[in-house]
């Protein structure tokens, strides 16, 4: 039986959601905060994540940023409780529809590499020639990627190039794995970048499990 993670502050809300998922053929792992999510995903193979809106709003900005890229790797939906009912948000979304997505998704765990908060000035470009590069700064870095502050429009899957100022030889490339647009005052605008050569979807999935 497939398993989904439910993140909600209220124990009652978690219990209601668990019962509803069980009736639809999905087991659940219940968490009270976003902070628990990265470690849980390292240990338990799941096929989806359900996140209560109120829990998101009450989480710290650091906790929201820490899980932002993780949510891109699974079927994911936000929900709110209305009495004994649960409303899954999003156009034409329902709990049954979300469960159907989970049933078709291969359960997996991920190994979260340690991130370090580092503010490094870099040029960010959508082309290797850096003809229209944006002056940006990293927010955090890890062995395999970084989050870069940016106010431009990006798409998941876009290729990007990074270069340190004053060193035209030190250039690296990567793939956009998440994007937070400017204007959402709850999150820093920018992109999560997986550094390295271009990879097909199958390779990206293998990396998530490695």
Question: Could you characterize what this model shows?
Answer:
The chain has 210 residues and is of the alpha+beta class. It folds into 2 domains: 3-103, Rossmann fold; 116-209, Beta Barrel (Thrombin, subunit H), CATH 2.40.10. It contains 6 helices and 12 strands. The chain has helices at 11-23, 37-43, 53-58, 61-71, 95-103, 201-209; strands at residues 3-7, 27-31, 49-52, 76-82, 85-88, 116-117, 121-125, 134-141, 145-149, 159-163, 171-180, 190-195. The strands form 2 sheets. A 6-stranded antiparallel barrel has the order 7-8-9-12-11-10.
Task: Sketch the major β-sheet.
Answer: 6 strands, antiparallel, barrel
Instruction: Give the distance, in angstroms, between the N- and C-terminal Cα atoms.
Output: 23 Å
- Shape designation: elongated
What is the element string, with H for helices and E for strands? EHEHEHHEEHEEEEEEEH
Question: Which topology of the largest domain does CATH recognise?
Answer: Rossmann fold
Q: How would you write the strand order of the largest sheet?
A: 7-8-9-12-11-10
- The total strand number stands at 12
- The residue ranges in which pLDDT falls below 50 over 5 or more consecutive positions are 200-210
User: Domains counted in the coordinates: how many?
Assistant: 2
The CATH superfamily of the largest domain turns out to be: Response regulator
Tally the helices: 6
Proportion in β-strands: 25-35%
- Helix-strand makeup class: alpha+beta
CATH first level of the largest domain: which class? Answer: Alpha Beta
Rounded mean pLDDT score: 85
Helix fraction bin:
25-40%
């Amino acid at each position: 039986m497939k398993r989904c993670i439910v993140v909600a502050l209220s124990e009652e809300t978690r219990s209601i959601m668990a019962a509803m998922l069980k009736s639809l053929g999905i087991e659940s792992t219940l968490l009270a905060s976003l902070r628990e999510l990265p470690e849980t995903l390292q240990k338990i193979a799941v096929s989806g994540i359900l996140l209560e809106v109120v829990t998101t709003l009450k989480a710290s900005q650091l906790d929201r940023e820490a899980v932002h890229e993780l949510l891109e790797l699974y079927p994911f939906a936000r929900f709110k409780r209305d009495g004994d009912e649960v409303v899954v948000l999003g156009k034409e979304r329902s709990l049954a529809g979300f469960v159907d997505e989970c049933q078709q998704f291969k359960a997996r765990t991920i190994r979260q590499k340690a991130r370090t908060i580092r503010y490094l000035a870099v040029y960010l470009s959508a082309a290797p020639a850096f003809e229209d590069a944006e002056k940006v700064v990293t927010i955090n870095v890890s062995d395999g990627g970084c989050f870069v502050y940016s106010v431009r429009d990006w798409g998941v899957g876009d290729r990007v190039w990074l270069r340190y100022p004053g060193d035209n030889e030190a250039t690296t490339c990567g793939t956009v794995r998440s994007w937070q647009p400017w204007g959402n005052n709850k999150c820093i605008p920018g992109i999560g970048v997986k550094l390295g050569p271009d990879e097909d979807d199958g390779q990206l999935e293998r990396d998530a499990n490695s």
